[in-house]
Specification:
With about 325 residues, the protein is an alpha/beta fold. The chain has helices at about 10-15, 20-35, 35-40, 60-75, 75-85, 90-95, 105-115, 120-135, 210-215, 230-240, 260-270, 275-285, 295-320; strands at about 145-150, 170-175, 175-190, 195-200, 220-225, 240-245.
């Protein structure tokens, strides 16, 4: 049973035009250009068997918007609750009148768990992607692949010799520095829209998920030198796919030929767009995982990815 929201009051009408113009522009684009019903429908079956007795649940469209607000503005659960109580534009976006009660942080925890337990992160991600494809915002050919390390606390030793470390996270070494945590692998189009993703522990090498991420590509694949493999190049060539993976020096080779340096430079300029996601994640404070365990953090990474796709689509719509 769904919670009934109060009808907008006279005060809601008087304050409808208030709020920052930048916020309104973002929220209006979501309402005008995104197939919200497709996104909501991808997970509304989770409430089909909701018992009629008991506490009614918050409207699904509202809760999905709450997830997006958290990712777009880097908000924790308590911060989201505080902003929903304090910011008029946020209340208007999610559909709360001034007289409605506000979802609290426990509500968000339970909602995420419901989605996570049902494996709904992939359903939501694919629904957002299909919505953007329908708008012509996702390129059909050309895949850029990259990965990022998301650190987890290394923990501390207890008096009994055990540790508080996340046991599902793992260690890796990059650029002579040790890291502990997880790794997000992504495949984007040449506009930087995420087409697919994988989430693993940190020890999984970047290249191990590449073949899964580019299996449907029929044109070109771009990646840095960590992904270079002679067998991979041969497989791509047999499929007629351009192998745009940056070449590195081979053993005994003092330096790359000039033509290869030029090719690498062109490839680097193409694949640079994939760094936009990681820069945005850093700006949102998402350089470290927020939870313990692979599954919780995989869900969080997927929601971050779909929120990024939506946010990037708004920038692209400004140019149309």
């Amino acid at each position: 049973m769904q919670r009934k929201m109060k009808e907008p009051t006279f005060i809601d009408g008087c304050t409808a035009d208030l709020g920052g113009p930048r916020m309104k522009q973002i929220f209006n684009k979501y309402h005008r250009h995104i197939d919200r019903r497709r996104i909501e429908k991808s997970v509304d079956h989770l409430y089909d068997r909701q018992p009629k007795a008991g506490r009614p649940h918050w409207p699904l469209p509202m809760m999905i918007k709450c997830l997006l607000l958290q990712k777009w503005f880097g908000l924790s659960d308590p911060q989201l609750e505080e902003n929903l109580r304090d910011r008029l534009s946020f209340r208007q976006f999610v559909g709360l009148s001034l007289e409605d009660t506000t979802p609290d942080e426990t509500t968000m925890v339970r909602f995420r768990k419901k989605l996570r337990d049902a494996g709904a992160d992939r359903l939501l991600f694919n629904a957002v992607l299909k919505s953007l494809k329908a708008r012509g915002l996702v390129m059909k050919e050309g895949t850029l692949v990259d990965a990022t390390i998301l650190e987890a606390p290394k923990g501390r030793k207890r008096n009994d010799g055990s540790t508080t470390r996340d046991e599902e996270a793992s260690f890796t070494r990059k650029n002579n520095q040790n890291y502990h945590g997880y790794k997000g692998h992504i495949a984007t189009d040449q506009n930087g829209m995420i087409r697919d993703y994988r989430f693993t522990t940190a020890r999984v090498h970047d290249s191990q998920k590449m073949d899964e991420l580019v299996k449907d590509e029929r044109s070109a694949v771009y990646a840095d030198s960590a992904y270079m493999d002679s067998q991979r190049k041969e497989r791509l060539s047999k499929k007629g796919v351009f192998c745009g993976i940056i070449r590195r020096r081979t053993r005994g080779q003092k330096e790359l030929p000039r033509y290869q340096k030029l090719i690498n430079r062109v490839i680097s300029s193409i694949r640079a767009v994939v760094e936009h996601l990681f820069a945005w994640m850093s700006m949102m404070g998402y350089e470290q995982v927020r939870y313990r365990g692979l599954r919780r953090n995989e869900f969080d990474f997927a929601v971050t990815g779909l929120a990024y796709n939506l946010k990037r689509s708004f920038s692209m719509l400004e140019k149309t």
